[in-house]
Amino acid sequence: MARIGVFVCHCGENIGRTVDCARVAEALREHPGVAHSVDYKYMCSDPGQALIKQAIVEKRLDGVVVAACSPHMHEKTFRRACAGAGLNPFLCEMANVREHCSWIHEDRARATDKAIDLARTIVEKVKHNRPLQTIRIPVTRRALVIGGGIAGIQAALDIADGGAEVVLVEKEPSIGGHMSQLSETFPTLDCSQCILTPRMVEVYQHPRIKLLAFSEVDEVSGYIGNFTVKIRQKARAVDTSKCNGCGACTTACIQRKIPSEFDERLGMRSAIYVPFPQAVPNTPVIDRANCAYFKAKAKGATKAACGKCAQACSREAIDFDQQDSFLTERVGAIVVATGFQLYQIGADQPQGLTGYGEYGYGTVPDVIDGLQFERLASASGPTGGKILRPSDGKEPKRIVFLQCVGSRDPAKGMAYCSKICCMYVAKHTMLYRHKVHDGQATVFYMDIRAAGKGYDEFTRRAIEEDGARYVRGRVARLYRDGDVIKVHGFDTLSGEPLVLDADMVVLATAMRPQPGIEALAQKLSVSYDQHGFINEAHPKLRPVETNTAGVFVAGACQAPRDIPDSVAMASAAAAKILGLFSQAELEREPIVARVDASLCAGCFHCERVCPYGAVERKEIRDRKGTLLKVVAEVNPGVCQGCGTCQATCPSKSVELDGFTDQQIWAEINALAL
Amino acid sequence: MRIGYYPGCSLHATARELDESLRAVASALDLELQELDDWSCCGATSAHATNHLLSLALPARNLALAEAQGHDRVLAPCAACYNRLATARHGIAADSAVAARVARVLDRPFANRVAVANLVEVLRELGPTIKAKTVRSLASLKVACYYGCLLVRPAEVVGFDDPEQPTSMEEVVRATGATPVAWQMRLECCGGAFSLARTASVVRLGRAILDDARRAGAEALVVACPMCHSNLDFRQSAMLERGEKPLPVLYLSELVGLALGLAPGTLGLQRHFVDARPLAARTAAEVR
């Protein structure tokens, strides 16, 4: 016979007002298997906990039910109390008679009856509880950071400065991300590269950071504290160990008219190239799709078609035969910081998106996007920092800026606000006025969203000091009319349609996550929203964690973010990881699924439905080593205890500890009796 | 192919040539048009400004007729009729409360099963047949496709083409062999129903449309809406202020008819205010 103790809490007036706690305790005293039943004003207080401890010892209890608040509130408290008295903490359960009963009912007699029922169900469950042991997981004190933009750089530096090793993976030839393309940054107008490049160099030189540029994450396995990551190092065709970054190869290259990605196709680069002069690492890479040597080879030429770069290299660093290589890293935590891309509007749109063809992007050369304007305004850009329009190189005297292109537009684009555009458009109007004193900037906006320190002041400055003209309304369409662009818009404040002549138009297009984010998220078993942004574990209280333990998120891959936000998230993720690394072992609740190998038929339904990739395959062999069968096995380090496998298993061979079928049935039966 | 045919009031009156050319083209393309028996007004410009329920019930009555007469699709060549029919179909499908109210008013069985098609949509589907049956080369003919405001909007109701960058009319024009020009005023308003009430506005708007088409090198406008046609054709003499050459305004079905070698008389070309017959004669001279 079980010896269960029932402890009914009044929670001051919270429960006691509606539920007759003394009667609940009395009713439970009569329940089979209950050896002790009392009520008390505040069960969570020290004297309340002492009551429980004392009863466990004196009445030799083998199970405890606390009829009180939600287990979210005090389960830990009462389990700790039980452990203190020598009872396995997982033999203690709570019956929620506050949120589920007293707070939502008015009739005292019926609420009391319900509280009795609730307590009885839990008593029946506890009869089937078995002692569980806290799971301990070893921790590898190394972190993987995916993405070498400002968020990834900040996370890597903070973790490494905290004493742990970091592997930083960047898919482009250089770290730096979008921030390295920017001219000046809001709201202080400090030069983006001037504040970023020292950080990039710091990453490169840090003794605890292993930088893997031009690399991508191929496979991820394992769980918190114990991830194994396979990384593909893409072939640069340049031997990093020999190259000293002199640049002779890029000068020698015969292909010089390739649109530069770094300059957003407004400038040209060679086929062997370094994305920008301050690149880290400063090692060139051969763009095989555009290189004469590789193009000829792909067509089947047997003789080397070019090879000018190899001839120019004094260190014999050019290696045309280099192949992608793989390496495996073991890490304890992962930061996803893959950043954003701008919504590519116009004729050629990815992923079945359409819309905004009326803005002529891609067909009218002087209609450009925000990042292209950054390159025009940047001292390192294709025009050396002069604002010149792409079609004829003339200085535009009238620029029209369009905000919310693709953002806040559920009909044609994204429903969300891209957050940074209000600020960077204000910045663009200022940079424009500072460079072209007689230039007139006109901004079409929906609202000005300038929430941030010094942000509203900044947009006011653009309007009041730098003469930007703000028109509240949207633009219907644009078209080229001879030398000018006709902008048909609507001023919603005056209620008048508006036709403006512009020399150049800048579209503040929506921020979207990087292409391929879904594939990466699936490798990491983290969830993402309908736009591909990585989901945080809790929108308010766990903003940099994901739903997979040990995987964190920072920067614009989670939602549109500006630089300060991205950096703050990165530092927060780093702090979380350093906290994780501060212990040799992780402790976690043993509420995980277990497979009974003798019953498992190996159908692996559980493997398919597990959202966390916790189900593995195990071979059962006899003593001679003959394979008998393959069964499912749950990795307790990965399992989050959701119970989906248990609900799916046709042979009932998976059980979730703490919530077994037997326990749930016992609860239901107690209600039915 | 068989399709229910809802001509609406225009095609029996000011847009007779649209009716005539459409019937001629349909028979040449083996498209059987079955005019709905006992059709009534769609409500067009006035009903939706007067009474919301009425504006849905009037077209719904015609859709119910089409359903009862065994059609799964009805062609409404007038852009205004098309818009009203499609809007009613969409509005009734989207809201069961509205559907119930309309059903009460209709007092006849109605399952809202009939699809609504417009002239451009149907001709686009027949594009390959048009191409195959073209006997006259229109290659030297440059036309400006004018969609107007109603044909492709609102997107959630219409949905057969991009509301900002439509291509369907150009596709039909290419099937006839003629060349669509790239121009800017394809979707601008022509003044719609204000031809009588605010003639000056209609003239101002129409002039901008004609000027842009002319600048783009067009020799004719192609339309698919009786309202646009009457504004741009009937009012065109008032729009020509500096002795510009008038631009014939053709219905899309008339252009297809010319390509198919149908006689201008059967296409109703003699009914236009801006004479389109010299243009037709020029194409007739260029037999493929």
Overview of this structure, please?
The complex is a heterodimer of chains A (673) and B (288). Chain A has 673 residues and is an alpha/beta fold. Chain A folds into four domains: 4-132, Rossmann fold (3-Layer(aba) Sandwich), CATH 3.40.50; 142-336, no CATH class; 342-512, 3-Layer(bba) Sandwich (FAD/NAD(P)-binding domain), CATH 3.50.50; 589-657, Alpha-Beta Plaits (2-Layer Sandwich), CATH 3.30.70.20. Chain A is built from 18 helices and 34 strands. In chain A, the strands form twelve sheets. Chain A has a five-stranded parallel sheet. Chain A has a five-stranded parallel sheet with strand order 20-27-21-22-23. Chain A has a four-stranded parallel sheet with strand order 2-1-3-4, sandwiched between helices. In chain A, helix 6 crosses helix 7 and helix 12 (421-435) runs parallel beside helix 13. Chain A starts with a strand and ends with a helix. The model of chain A has no long low-confidence stretch (mean pLDDT 94). Chain B has two domains: 2-119, Up-down Bundle (Glutathione S-transferase Yfyf (Class Pi), Chain A, domain 2); 121-285, Rossmann fold (3-Layer(aba) Sandwich), CATH 3.40.50.11810. The mean pLDDT of chain B is 93. Chain B has helices spanning 8-11, 16-28, 44-50, 52-68, 79-94, 96-106, 119-125, 127-133, 168-176, 199-215, 226-234, 236-239, 252-259, 264-267, 277-285; strands spanning 2-5, 32-35, 73-75, 115-117, 142-145, 179-180, 220-223, 249-251. The interface between A and B is small, with 10 and 6 residues.
